[in-house]
Specification:
The chain is of the alpha+beta class and 679 residues long. It is built from 17 helices and 20 strands.
Length: 679
């Protein structure tokens, strides 16, 4: 069967000339007739799907059996012939306008191959950074740009007395830092930078080895844990006097204890053996030891810029912990001056651990800044209570009810679930474009493996590092200028830059409610013990002598506090810091702006408290937060925490009123101790 390409001519019989487009031989609007073989008579609708009826050729049985060219036949009803067609599984289609006859189709059973789901994996990267002190900016950017969950660093050079500013610059927001520094000499050190959702607990801290450093951790997500051991072996030299024989002896003992640990096992780091050289005796010995312990080394590519495989990624022989094949990549690490640095390549792999979702938190808020203070002040109504007849408890209830109802109208409380993400406030559009160009250069380098593309990628890496430094510097310069003379905000910003942030440290827990209950029981029991000890001391005869007054008091005893005036309460509230508590009905800054309306009832609450000689129950309630006493203490021990209470604002106003009257009485009769210090 042969097909003849018809000529394309115009109405007058001459060939048409059309504008030619590059890549199309006949031009942009060149029209060719297409011979089509079909079965049966088609139901043709004008302009249906752009079909041209003149391009259709109908054939009969004898036409198919002849070898002569196909001739155009008139539009007559013809006999249909089934054409066997192979298809895959498709949805059943009901379409009367289709030319397909379903009885002519043959169904083929296919086996579906499952696609690897990378969303249920953890990204692991191992890098010998050789001093992270001068590469902190680049390492931080590499972790965030590649979405790395576990970043293993060897030769960190951080030391034991690490500057918090370096750790703050090295660790991205939303990540934690686990460090094992070298304390006896310069260099060395191991670290793991990991997302907060990934639990990393150091293990086997007591084991000490002379010829290699190790950091062994239990890493887990959603109650599934694996043991990860980070190893760094310095090459033997005259200065360290290391010997390979001693290393293999210690390495054998370490593997003997490590392989007995149940569960999955992963060893990564730098051994400084030429593992790719089959003639290297030490490399063969190392490989044989792995085989004897049922372990397997997965890295075969060169991991050093000058050649040879020096880094390892080891698992059990039958372990399914790795997702796919690990690969070696150029991380493009630069020092803080923007110059290329580092002689090792990065090892990247995926672990079959379900990636924990990002932390979600439900926050409640009010749009306080949208409140119209004039309207808010006019809506406050405290006229429905008689001050003289009401007790202090009823006055407080009425005060809280009126303020809460008013603020619910002007700024209703809303709830919103947010996802805690790493925050980079100095990120700019120029930096985004530079990172995009770097990623494009990296893909080109991997595809071609040409030296020129490698040089281009290095240039892009240096440009990004320098731009990051510039953006951060410019951001903080502008921030300092905006703060101006506000020393409190300047001190807060400086602490953030120096890494001295007061993070909330709490014991490991599964339920926040249970943890709060345990803290409450511990603090209540501690207070009860203090009271019991005081009671036992006051009953002893020696304590009576100690508590006896040295000088007899001849003045007027302070039996009652004089009432406060509206002007005095206004001054106390105006001089008080603008701090709020979650128990306050409205924020303190809003209260100060509309103080005229609630001022009488606040004054009456204080005077009622003086006359009844009692502190209202609502003033005794507080938000208690446990604060760890010092860095380095065991966070799982409750005795290492102190309770910090946040009281309602009005309770502090009452304290100020009482303190002023007490101080006045002590000064009037010179009752202060001459050597009184602090409390």
């Amino acid at each position: 069967m042969c097909f003849v390409r018809p000529n394309t001519v115009g109405v007058s019989g001459r060939a048409k000339h059309f504008r030619v487009r590059r890549g199309v031989k006949g031009g942009r609007r060149f029209i060719r007739r297409i011979h089509t073989v079909c079965v049966g008579r088609l139901s043709y609708v004008e302009h249906q799907l752009g079909a041209n009826r003149n391009n259709l050729v109908y054939i009969f049985n004898d036409t198919l059996n002849n070898s002569c060219p196909i001739a155009k036949v008139p539009n007559e009803t013809c006999e249909t012939f089934p054409i066997p067609t192979l298809i895959q599984h498709r949805k059943k289609r009901i379409d009367n306008t289709s030319c397909r006859d379903g009885s002519n189709l043959l169904k083929i059973e296919t086996s579906r191959v499952p696609i690897a789901n990378t969303s249920g994996t953890l990204s692991l990267c191992t890098l010998n950074c050789r001093s992270s002190r001068n590469k902190s900016v680049s390492i931080n950017d590499y972790i965030q740009s590649n979405n790395i969950d576990l970043m293993v660093l060897t030769e960190t050079w951080l030391g034991s007395n690490t500057d918090n500013a370096i750790l703050s610059e090295l660790t991205p927001n939303g990540y934690n830092f686990t460090n094992n520094p070298r304390v006896d000499r310069r260099g060395g050190g191991l670290a793991i930078i990991h997302e907060k959702q990934v639990s990393v607990k150091p293990a086997n801290k007591d084991a000490k080895y002379t010829n290699f450093e190790h950091l062994e951790c239990s890493v887990g997500v959603k109650n599934k844990f694996i043991r990860i051991a980070v190893i760094y072996r310095p090459p033997p030299s005259k200065s360290n006097k290391f010997k390979n024989s001693v290393f293999f002896e210690e390495w054998t003992n370490y593997l003997d204890s490590l392989v007995l640990i149940p569960g999955e096992l992963l060893i990564t780091g730098v051994l400084n053996f030429h593992l790719d050289d089959p003639n290297d005796k030490d490399a063969r010995t190392f490989t044989e030891l792995l085989t004897e312990h049922g372990l397997k080394q997965h890295i075969s590519d060169e991991t050093h810029r000058l050649g040879h495989t020096l880094d390892v990624l080891i698992t059990r022989e039958d372990s399914p912990i790795l997702q796919g094949t690990p690969f070696v990549a150029d991380p493009g690490i630069c020092d803080n001056n923007g110059n290329r640095s580092g002689d090792h390549l990065a090892i990247r792999t995926l672990l079959r651990l379900s990636k924990a979702p990002r932390e979600r938190r439900t926050v409640t808020f009010r749009k306080i800044h949208d409140i119209n203070i004039d309207k808010f002040r006019n809506d406050l109504d405290f006229s429905n209570v008689t001050y003289k007849e009401a007790s202090v408890e009823k006055l407080i209830i009425h005060y809280n009810r009126v303020l809460t109802a008013t603020i619910d109208v002007h700024a209703p409380q809303k709830s919103k679930e947010i996802v805690i993400r790493p925050n980079t406030p100095w990120f700019t559009d120029d930096l985004y474009s530079a990172k995009r160009d770097r990623r494009r250069a990296e893909r080109t380098m991997r595809r071609t493996n040409l030296a020129v593309h490698n040089d281009i990628f290095n240039q892009k890496c240096m440009q990004v590092t320098k731009l990051i430094q510039h953006c951060k510097s410019q951001f903080y310069i502008n921030k300092i200028q905006e703060i101006g003379s506000d020393s409190k905000q300047l001190f807060k910003l400086t602490n953030n830059l120096m890494g001295n942030t007061n993070l909330s440290v709490l014991p490991e827990h599964d339920s926040e409610i249970d943890l709060a209950s345990k803290f409450g029981e511990f603090f209540i029991g501690k207070i009860q013990k203090i009271r019991e000890n005081l009671c036992s001391l006051t009953k002893s005869p020696t304590m009576e002598v100690v508590l006896r007054a040295d000088i007899k008091f001849d003045g007027i005893p302070l039996e009652a506090f004089e009432p406060v005036s509206i002007a005095e309460v206004c001054d106390i509230i105006g001089d008080a810091p603008t701090k709020s508590c979650e128990l306050d009905p409205i924020p303190t800054n809003v209260l100060k702006q509309c103080l005229e309306s609630p001022l009488p009832i606040v004054t009456e609450i204080i005077n009622k408290s003086f006359s009844e000689a009692s502190v209202p129950l609502d003033f005794k309630k507080a938000i208690v937060r446990p604060l760890i006493k010092g860095q380095g203490l065991d966070k799982d021990e409750f005795k290492n925490y102190r309770p910090v209470s946040n009281l309602p604002f009005l309770s502090k106003v009452l304290e100020k009123a009482v303190a002023s009257r007490l101080e006045k009485h002590l000064n009037a009769y010179q009752l202060h101790d001459n050597v009184q210090s602090a409390y």
